[in-house]
Amino acid sequence: MLKVVLGEVEVVIEAVSTVPDAAVSGEDPAAVLAGTEFGARCRPALVRWRGRSLRYVAVWPERAVLGPADPPPDLAGVVLAQVVRGWRCRVCGRRVTAVVPEGALPFFGGNLKPHRWAANCPHCAAHVDRARMHALCLLPERPDA
Ligand SMILES: [Zn+2]
After folding, report:
1. Which of 13, 90, 101, 117 is 20 to 30 A from 111, alpha carbon to alpha carbon?
2. Residue 29 CB contacts under 8 Å (≥ 6 apart), including other chains
3. Ligand 1 mean position to 35 CA, how many Å?
4. 59 CA distance to ligand 1 middle (Å)
């Protein structure tokens, strides 16, 4: 486990999520990302701020290789991101699940540069500028999801 304290914000990064769903707000991003290209270079993260616990995922840059155990102590280039469901493509109107980086936390917010961002809508392949969906990762949502 890694713990980083940034002012009044505490960030805990774990090998696997050990927090029961009822104790935190937000979906477990690591579970959503399992099986995607992000799965191998992300770990569950918890942000504690003013008595609240928020689920995030810590994402290492593309060049990083993570082992199965504890997260590596080197946080160079690591960003924190949240899973947001229900974004609608402005071109095709279909919905996606987005992995959105948190830029507001000091330290982590400065680490966005080594990350590649999603380029196209996963449904219609429209460029993200036209689709108005800027995120690290865009996953298609089924209409009934
Ligand atoms: Zn689209």
Report:
1. 90
2. 42, 44, 55, 56, 57, 81, 82, 83, 99
3. 22
4. 25
pTM: 0.83
Band (88; pLDDT cuts 50, 70, 90) = very high
Whether 145 is in a domain gets the answer no
Query: How far apart are the CA of 56 and the centre of ligand 1, in A?
Result: 25
Å from CA of 125 to ligand 1 middle: 6
Domain that holds residue 66: 2-140
Query: How many domains, in total, are found in the chain?
Result: 1
Residue 144 pLDDT level (bands cut at 50, 70, 90): low
Range with the poorest average pLDDT among 21-35, 54-68, 83-97, 107-121: 21-35
Q: How many whole angstroms from 13 Cα to the centroid of ligand 1?
A: 33
Does a structural domain hold residue 92?
Answer: yes
Q: 93 CA to middle of ligand 1, Å? A: 6
